[in-house]
Amino acid sequence: MGDVFKALADLTRRAILDELTERDGQTLFELCTRLTMKHEVTSSRQAISQHLDVLEGAGLVTTRRDGRYKFHFLDTRPLRAIVQRWPIQH
Amino acid sequence: MGDVFKALADLTRRAILDELTERDGQTLFELCTRLTMKHEVTSSRQAISQHLDVLEGAGLVTTRRDGRYKFHFLDTRPLRAIVQRWPIQH
DNA sequence: TTGACAGGCAAGTCCTTACTTGCCTATAGT
DNA sequence: ACTATAGGCAAGTAAGGACTTGCCTGTCAA
Fold first, then answer.
1. pLDDT bucket at A16, cuts 50 / 70 / 90
2. Is the CB of B36 within 7 Å of strand D?
3. Core vs surface per residue B26-54: b (16+ CB within 10 A) or e
4. Do B9 and A14 touch (CB under 8 A)?
5. What percentage of residues in chain A have a pLDDT greater than 90?
6. Partner residue facing A86 (CB), from B6, B79, B88
């Protein structure tokens, strides 16, 4: 299991999570085009693919393969560990 | 304002936040000794000092100077942005 | 005033990591 | 079968970040 904090440290990876929040179950190519369009991300396909590997390693993204398509789903459950670790003030 | 996510990406900095959760308002030297004792952190004074700068830059730590002592206080309010950014599942 | 103590500053080293480049595999359509 | 599409693998590059090293400033006690 990868480091959730390290996974969140990258700006592009956070944009990926934003995109999946907006529209869950996207393929790699869908993510690439939508990220360049709406989130001003200029990363290549390979870069996004590697980011998705990191996110999946951290448990923040799950995948389902169907033919030549691979769909990516958001899983925010690992984020609860952050909230529970330190007392949140107000 | 620094990046809260980047600040949390480091293991030693998270240990510092743990320490301040346990005992708020510590000086740099207090933190160094307690971190090596209880959190198995082997970083030098300068390393811890630089980590504290990052945490302060991210708004997770505030400081108060008194004579030759500088006290460090935990502020977890920036963590709320993480929780609010993505919907937490269960 | 002298020395010890708490902390700060800045340059250099080294390792991690984000990204590119090039090529490969597999599935689907015509 | 041939081609286009979706994705994967792996080595190389370059930038960022953690840490060290050495020295300096400021505060307090004797």
1. very high
2. no
3. bebeebbebbeeebebebeeeebeebbeb
4. no
5. 86
6. B79
Residue B17 has φ and ψ, to the nearest 5°, of -60, -40
> A61-66 and A69-74: which strand pairing?
antiparallel
- Asked if A65 CB < 7 A from strand C, the reply is no
Sequence-ordered list of residues with C-beta below 8 angstroms from that of A55, at least 6 positions apart, any chain: A7, A13, A16, A17, A61
Q: Model's pTM, two decimal places? A: 0.93
DSSP-derived letter for residue A26 is: B
* Spatial distance from the CA of B41 to the C1' of C30 (Å): 63
Mean pLDDT, range B49-69, rounded to an integer: 97
From residue B55, alpha-carbon distances to B49, B59, B84 in Å are 10, 6, 20
Phi, psi of A43 (to 5 degrees): -70, 155
User: Which positions on chain C have an atom < 7 Å from some protein CB?
Assistant: 5-10, 17-22, 26-28
Please say whether the beta carbons of B62 and B54 come within 8 A. no
